[in-house]
Design brief:
It is a single chain. This protein is an alpha+beta fold. The protein folds into 2 domains: about 375 residues, no CATH class; about 120 residues, Copper amine oxidase-like, N-terminal domain (Copper Amine Oxidase, Chain A, domain 1). Helix content is about 60%, strand content about 10%. The chain is built from 18 helices and 14 strands. A hairpin with a 4-residue loop joins strand 6 and strand 7.
């Protein structure tokens, strides 16, 4: 892991090398009065301690302490979180849920609260202060965030490290997070806004990885646990996933919703570890692809160089978050290869070399697409869907008049998880995915979304029919209508959520 982080960071001279001492640090020096944050962390530890190892807790006292010490602030940061904690406690008091489930709602629910508080301090307080040149205010906000992290979330990172320590996919998230914290402190000291943004992405996405891996643990153990324990683990997995639900929804809302529903449904027998991993791969690949699209189509060509560097790092850190999934299915060498291309991608972004950046993005997306995604080579009647090779009865091709890639409608629609139908009488292709219905008429550039023609979504290449009667659609335009990211390099196309 230390090597992988060095790879991703060393590619940008804008923020220099990572000091070697950072990787081994486990404690952090702060200069601000953080007694209020220490007190809040102590109250968290005290409320968790109300659940004894043996015997029944006083749930009324737990609720009273939650209401007195946390509820008002929790409501400010996330009203849904307060509702979930309160409802779980009330149901446990009524005997409809177990004390173990109540403990996980309080413990992991408050970890979500601390994650939100840390994000507020690092992103919405320290960063704006640093952008204004107010190092004192930035330092104060960052120190408060560090104190909360060190007391509440660092122990969770250590637990994840220990869980994976004896597996074939060990992780070192405590060290990674320590590197990020020290980088943030140095960036504030130097007044370097870009460095701060980069290390904040490293810090935040590493926390996302912590919660992601915690969820995977219970996806593995809950289905085979005895009933009472299974329910506790379902609750634990649910509350571990909630902090990252919003972020992963940006990669694939359908897959994020599926993970949430799987843990929130309350039936361990319907919880599938393989399915949870597949949903995570889709959502994480969607995040990687989304940031790459942003960098390549907007920020680099638009002269937004610092934003491009930050978001290249952000996308790469989602790759790091996917480490265990990649290593388990594809092996350590595949992960190392993806990281190497990620480094070269970031280097190309730093050098404002859009062509090289695109080439390396496609190279590493081809690797992670073996978990979830579509890869095809123009002119060949084969494509790979989630790592499985599929043969089609018609090859994709480039229309020389429009320079647009055309693909067989039915197969590519089904490859991205959509259903397709062609009405011979009306000459209309209907594609449905995730509650959205798109209609395309042969020979027309108009696009109908859920029954209405959308003026600003006209195709620059109409649907065509081959002599063999196969309909072909413009790949990028249609895939992007469904929120997919499409990349092209050296005759190959990669599609992610």
């Amino acid at each position: 892991m230390k090597k992988s982080i060095a790879l991703l960071l060393s590619a940008s001279l804008a923020f220099g090398s990572v000091p070697a001492a950072f990787a081994a640090q486990t404690s952090f020096a702060v200069t601000t009065d953080v007694s209020a944050q220490t007190s809040l962390a102590d109250k968290y530890k005290a409320i968790v301690a109300l659940f004894p190892a043996e015997g029944e807790p006083d749930l009324a006292e737990v609720k009273a302490q939650y209401e007195a010490n946390f509820q008002a602030d929790v409501k400010v940061l996330n009203a849904e979180l307060d509702t979930l904690i309160t409802q779980t406690l009330d149901l446990a008091i009524e005997g409809k849920l177990s004390a173990g489930q109540a403990k996980q709602a309080v413990d992991k629910g408050l970890q979500w609260y601390f994650y939100l508080a840390i994000t507020d301090l690092t992103r919405y307080q320290a960063l704006p202060a640093l952008e204004k040149g107010d190092k004192a205010a930035a330092t104060a906000a960052l120190d408060k965030a560090i104190e909360l992290y060190a007391n509440v979330l660092e122990p969770t990172a250590v637990k994840r490290d220990n869980y994976y320590l004896e597996t074939s996919t060990p992780v070192e998230m405590k060290d990674t997070l320590a590197t990020a914290v020290k980088g943030l402190q140095q960036a504030v000291k130097d007044g370097n806004v870009l460095n701060y943004k980069i290390y904040r992405q490293m810090f935040d996405k590493s926390l996302i990885k912590v919660f992601h891996l915690a969820t995977l643990k219970y996806a593995k153990t809950a289905p085979t646990a005895e009933p009472a324990k299974a329910q506790v683990e379902m609750t634990e997995g649910f509350f571990f996933f909630l902090p990252i639900y919003g972020s992963l929804s940006g990669g694939s809302k359908a897959d994020a919703d599926a993970i949430r529903s799987a843990f929130g449904g309350g039936d361990p027998s319907k919880l599938s570890e393989a399915a949870i991993k597949q949903h995570y791969a889709a959502a994480l690949n969607g995040k990687i692809g989304g940031y790459a699209t942003r960098v390549l189509t907007d920020e680099l060509p638009g002269g937004k160089h610092e934003a491009a560097i930050e978001h290249a790092v952000e996308g790469n850190m989602f790759l790091v978050a996917e480490e265990v999934l990649i290593k388990e299915k594809l092996g350590a060498e595949a992960y190392a290869e993806a990281l190497a291309h990620a480094e070269q991608y970031l280097q190309a972004v730093r050098n404002k070399n859009a062509a090289a950046a695109n080439e390396h993005v496609v190279a590493y997306l081809k690797i992670v697409a073996k978990l979830d995604g579509v890869v095809l080579k123009i002119g060949e009647a084969q494509l790979t869907v989630d790592g499985a090779v599929k043969t089609v009865d018609a090859a994709s091709y480039v229309n020389p008049q429009t320079n647009r890639t055309l693909v067989p409608t039915r197969f590519i629609a089904e490859a991205i998880g959509a259903s397709v139908d062609f009405n011979d009488a009306t000459q209309v292709v209907t594609i449905v995915k995730g509650g959205q219905t798109i209609e395309l008429k042969l020979g027309s550039a108009d696009v109908s979304v859920n029954g209405e023609v959308v003026a600003d979504k006209k195709l620059d290449q109409t649907v065509v029919v081959s002599e063999a009667g196969r309909s072909f659609i413009p790949l990028r335009a249609v895939a992007e209508l469904f929120g997919s990211n499409v990349f092209y390099s050296n005759g190959e196309v990669v599609i992610t959520e």
